[in-house]
Amino acid sequence: MGKHALLSASSSHRWLNCPPSARLSESCEDKGSNYAAEGTDAHTLCEYKLRIALGIHAKDPSADLTYFNEEMEECAIGYAAYILELVEAAKQNCVDPVVLIEQRLDFSRYVEGGFGTGDCVVIADGTLHIVDYKHGQGVLVEAEDNPQMKLYALGALEIFDGIYDIDTVSMTIYQPRRNNVSTHTVFKDSLYQWADEILKPTAELAYAGEGEFSCGEWCQFCKSKHDCRARAERNMELARYDFHLPPLLADDEVEDILGKIDDLISWASDIKDYALQSAVSGKQWNGWKLVEGRSNRRYTDETAVAEAVSGAGFDPYEHKVLGITTMTSLIGKNRFEEVLGSYIEKPQGKPTLVPESDKRPAIHTAQQDFNEF
């Protein structure tokens, strides 16, 4: 078995919605990213902080972490503190709850070759707790109906359901850089029902490379998204509107386009990136050629430049206060609030049109306020 399962928990949102994508992406190279590497460093630090908090000897990995900074340190400390609170609460119903860190969880009863790693599992009579740390701040991750968390829970139940009297399963996403602690609790029996009725049959289709292609926001992390014909066909459906300007479109046509336009923009960007990288690798596209893009002048030696300008009687440095994100990373989130909290304001954001499922409250326009008056 390879390091990564074909039907992994982390990619389950995609293959549960689009079963054939699992095999389609199997041969694609996993190039990784700086964000993934940063997340790995953060998980390593979280594991260390939690072990120390629980009185378990561990070596401090900070010096070996490429992306270590004050913000990551505070995130890891907060994560460890959250787990300790969870354990203390569990002790009210269980004398000796079990705490597992970076636990391998096998859910192959339902998913062929399925396994994953749970950041933290707390088992006590009555409730099984699954906690997953997310260091990313780009995408807000919710625990409700999260298939990755449900797969981890099934893996933990495989080990402990016969040992502890578990009735409910509590799944938590701890995402400190988004100030997000999302928890979803379900009855154990409903989780088993989902596993039997939805998970297992869909996983069988995915493992066999069968089922229907389906496009959606899960395409974002699909390794085959650049050349997926189903995705192309879905986005090209908008061509039936002949690119008419809004005044020439009916309301229902505008609403249909709004529901697909973000996917269209993302798809078009992916196609351009794919074509460029292929051309760089030697691919010839008919009617297109590689050229040298525009570039800006730059100094070959900034130290020498600074000395030369100073010698000429000028100040070579630009004096500018660091941005909020950079400043937070520099002095740490808690220290930032203490030192600069009174100097921070958050202006009202510009109106943005989003689907009704978005959790942000709707704002009233001047026309709506006038009508109500």
Report on this structure.
Helix content is 42%, strand content 12%. It is α+β, with helices and mostly antiparallel strands. Among the domains are: 12-208, Alpha-Beta Complex (Lambda Exonuclease, Chain A); 226-280, no CATH class. A five-stranded mixed sheet has the order 1-2-3-4-5. Strand 3, helix 5 and strand 4 (166-175) form a beta-alpha-beta unit. The protein is globular.
Topology diagram in text:
Blueprint: H1 12-17, H2 21-24, H3 34-53, H4 70-90, E1 98-106, E2 115-124, E3 126-133, H5 147-160, E4 166-175, E5 180-187, H6 188-208, H7 229-236, H8 251-258, H9 261-280, H10 302-311, H11 324-331, H12 333-340, H13 366-372
Parallel strand pairs: 3-4
Antiparallel strand pairs: 1-2, 2-3, 4-5
Helix pairs in contact: 3-4, 7-9, 11-12
Number of helices: 13
First-to-last CA distance = 67 Å
- Helix fraction? 40-55%
Overall CATH architecture of the domain at 12-208: Alpha-Beta Complex
Shape: globular
* N-to-C SSE string, H for helix and E for strand: HHHHEEEHEEHHHHHHHH
What is the name of the CATH class of the domain at 12-208? Alpha Beta
The major beta sheet can be summarized as: 5 strands, mixed
Structural class: alpha+beta
Kindly estimate the percentage of residues that lie in beta strands according to DSSP: 5-15%
Mean pLDDT: 88
How many β-strand runs? 5
Report a brief summary of the structure.
The chain is α+β, with helices and mostly antiparallel strands and about 375 residues long.
